[in-house]
Amino acid sequence: MVKICCIGAGYVGGPTMAVIALKCPSIEVAVVDISVPRITAWNSDQLPIYEPGLEEVVNQCRGKNLFQHTNVEKHVSEADIIFVSVNTPTKTRGLGAGKAADLTYWESAARMIADVSRSNKIVVEKSTVPRELLFRTFLTLTEFSLEGETPDGQKAVQALKDVYAHWVPEGRIITTNLWSAELSKLAANAFLAQRISSVNAMSALCEATGADVSQVSHAIGKDTRIGPRFLNSSVGFGGSCFQKDILNLVYICECNGLTEVANYWKQVIKVNDYQKNRFVNRVVSSMFNTVSGKKIAVLGFAFKKDTGDTRETPAIDVCKGLLGDKARLSIYDPQVTEDQIQRELSMNKYDWDHPIHLQPMSPATVKQVSVVWDAYEATKDAHGICIVTEWEEFKTLDFQRIFDNMQKPAFVFDGRNVVNVKKLREIGFIVYSIGKPLDPWLKGMPALA
Ligand code: UDX
Ligand code: ADP
């Protein structure tokens, strides 16, 4: 029986291994992690990660050919194929700070593999890491061959193909050289993020002119060369990949002396930051230029719907912006715990564009934040509502009930274009929706600079 071991039971390792176990009953899959709470959670009814369908897949395989352990060395030494999916955050200090990947976790995993391996292993890199760096590190630490071109490398490529061939048609498995693989991953995410920044840039122009960004997206999406997907204007993109991968791309460009190319991609992140700021400014300026002491309900904290993941979520910037103007926040997200929200809001944030660390929230500011388990509770007595994540349940809320329990005038700021603007205005709300024609109330109020 082929044995696979995955180092890192996070958002990448956990779900990827569950699918491999499901699709390959003949393969034994061990997921290992140094975090005891994480492994305990993977072995309980309360998985550490929420994703639709994940629980069903795990329940089907756990104890059969899918196992989660903390004994990292043992399972690495027994495996034929090792996937490395440890975290590779952006460096916050030192050379390449704010751009390059922090390889601390990766290096420690690589050293451990080298230490405990007594037989030939195939090592598959799942974390996003500039490939050349990784390649050098690994070759220095081990005596293994990593390249696909050598006979051993060819065998490794074939063994990995055999795993995926259980459910991916042969023709859809692409093999390339190392740099092409690396840049394809970065380029795919950069292109997707760029689409969102493009449509978000249009949203500002739509608001200024009276156009409706949804109509513009719909129209241009009909051109099959553009296509309809990934054109939803929003408060900004988040997630662990888009910003990190673009920063990696920028770093690689700069290392190769390609300043113009680096600047081109940087602009995608700048527009994303602009969009988040623009949203906060719109909230403050609409509410008589101050939110000080006002209760604002924040609906959604995850970076997108159907996940509990909050990495780089635009909610962090929106909440910090509102707290900066002394608002009181009541936050509700169906999948994110209070602990996690408080942690995200009190974390030091690295400003990639300027070499400074933004200060974490003071204890006094933390008191201004409450986390509740119901949208009606969050909006009760609030002056305004900010919708930051596009959870389906926000579309079907009883907005009449919410309106009746709010302070007046009652504001809704829809950062995801999920509400029915016309209906809400009929109820009596003042509604701002990204990229849509402005409420008459807002027209006379230019956004703060
Ligand atoms: C992304 C890539 O899609 C995936 O292929 C890659 O492997 C990892 O990175 P993910 O970050 O999980 O996946 O989510 P994705 O659905 O791409 O959304 C990223 C962000 O863009 C979210 O904050 C989402 O809300 C936002 N988004 C997406 C928009 O604002 N508008 C859109 O039209 C689509
Ligand atoms: P990703 O989105 O890349 O999966 P996560 O942070 O969700 O990132 O998961 C990475 C996981 O890797 C974490 O659970 C962390 O504890 C684990 N990890 C980091 N370094 C090591 C290591 N040397 N050995 C085993 N697990 C590790």
UniProtKB/TrEMBL annotation:
NAD(+) binds at residues 8-13, 33, 38, 86-90, 127-128, 147, 241-244, 311. Pathway: Nucleotide-sugar biosynthesis; UDP-alpha-D-glucuronate biosynthesis; UDP-alpha-D-glucuronate from UDP-alpha-D-glucose: step 1/1. GO terms for molecular function: NAD binding; UDP-glucose 6-dehydrogenase activity. The active site is at residue 241. SUPFAM superfamilies: 6-phosphogluconate dehydrogenase C-terminal domain-like, NAD(P)-binding Rossmann-fold domains, UDP-glucose/GDP-mannose dehydrogenase C-terminal domain. The keyword Membrane does not apply. This is UDP-glucose 6-dehydrogenase. It comes from Morella rubra (Chinese bayberry).
